[in-house]
Backbone:
């Protein structure tokens, strides 16, 4: 979506949507495990992670609505936009597949998210910095947990290892998008609101490299990166199906509350 | 007091250790606030001690219940036997002088 012409700060608005849509889409994906996880302990842990992410979404999309100045709430932005208006990375909309695939996706996202939030704590925009300082504590824990599971399953049985390697081969082409800057990134970086995405790559590679080495998983050689999520121009088909479920209630019963 | 938590005997006692399909059971103890003792809050399954602590964090401290977590594998807990109840506990029933009910505890002493 382009912000209405009246939006006083389109770059900040877009940036908040990118942060909030990442946590919204991944939060919903993770919540799809509720009641289905392999053991109850993991079920609760996944639900906690999903709730943390949805909590962060309220803050980011709430700020986006405030910046936009058109009276849209976080709920309006979450439930009343269509797929092409979403600004999340393609990585987070990938379907869950098996438990290992879900946790590997989580680990890849958490490692980027932690680098990003750590940098954002020093943002020149105080509201961005405040949200990040709250979120970074939650995300440090998310990464500890997802990394432990990736290591446990990667360095586990032949079957769990094979599934994790397969998950890594499938997901790796969706990692690069997070580090490729565009005009929005350039503007918010120039204003000190957010870091240049490319500057996060080294820290990410170091974290993920150490985790995957311990998990005995091999990083694919290719750095090919699917793109089109954070600009909204080329989401994968899976996002539409996810939104159909996530937004059904507000679409069928507009304005319903309880 | 020789009986041990049933089903939780050390694996090494078995000549041919059975293949485990389930993670071991852990007992979880949480300290609610500084100065209090850890209290048993429940149990959970986890593959190792680190994951048991993480699981305990997610299962038992979601509503800000704790400042410290202990976990111990259930098979390491020795338990008294219910059939020894008489000899173990009845002798203390008639010894009222063992209860410190004859003191006034000053408020400043805090939690005892």
Residues:
């Amino acid at each position: 979506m382009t912000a209405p012409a009246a939006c006083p700060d389109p770059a900040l608005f877009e940036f908040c949507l990118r942060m909030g849509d990442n946590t919204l889409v991944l939060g919903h994906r993770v919540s799809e495990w509720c009641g289905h996880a392999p053991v109850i302990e993991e079920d609760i842990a996944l639900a906690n992670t999903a709730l943390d992410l949805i909590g962060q979404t309220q803050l980011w999309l709430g700020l986006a609505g405030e910046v936009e100045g058109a009276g849209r709430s976080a709920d309006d932005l979450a439930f009343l936009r269509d797929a092409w208006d979403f600004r999340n990375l393609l990585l987070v909309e990938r379907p869950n597949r098996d438990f290992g695939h879900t946790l590997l996706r989580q680990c890849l996202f958490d490692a980027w998210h932690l680098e990003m939030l750590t940098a954002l704590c020093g943002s020149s925009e105080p509201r961005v910095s405040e949200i990040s300082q709250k979120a970074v504590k939650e995300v440090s824990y998310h990464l500890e947990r997802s990394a432990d599971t990736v290591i446990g399953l990667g360095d586990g049985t032949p079957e769990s290892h094979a599934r994790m390697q397969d998950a890594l081969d499938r997901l790796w082409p969706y990692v690069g998008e997070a580090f490729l800057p565009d005009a929005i990134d350039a503007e918010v970086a120039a204003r000190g609101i957010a870091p240049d995405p490319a500057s996060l790559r080294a820290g990410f590679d170091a974290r993920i490299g150490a985790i995957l080495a311990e998990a005995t998983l091999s990083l694919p050689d290719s750095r090919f990166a699917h793109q089109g999520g954070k600009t909204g121009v080329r989401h994968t088909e899976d996002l539409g199906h996810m939104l159909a479920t996530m937004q059904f209630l507000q679409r069928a019963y507009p304005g319903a509350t309880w | 007091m020789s009986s041990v938590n049933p089903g939780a005997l050390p694996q090494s006692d078995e000549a041919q250790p059975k293949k485990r399909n389930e993670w071991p059971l852990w007992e979880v103890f949480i300290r609610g606030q500084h100065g209090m003792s850890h209290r048993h809050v429940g149990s959970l399954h986890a593959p190792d001690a680190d994951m048991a602590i993480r699981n305990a964090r997610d299962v038992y401290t979601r509503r800000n219940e704790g400042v410290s977590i202990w976990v111990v594998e259930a098979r390491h807990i020795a338990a008294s036997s219910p059939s020894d109840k008489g000899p173990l506990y009845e002798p203390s029933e008639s010894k009222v002088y063992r209860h410190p009910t004859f003191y006034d505890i000053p408020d400043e002493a805090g939690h005892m």
Q: What stands out?
A: Chain A has a mean pLDDT of 96. Residues 65 and 71 of chain A are 7 Å apart (CA to CA). DSSP finds ten helices and no strands in chain A.
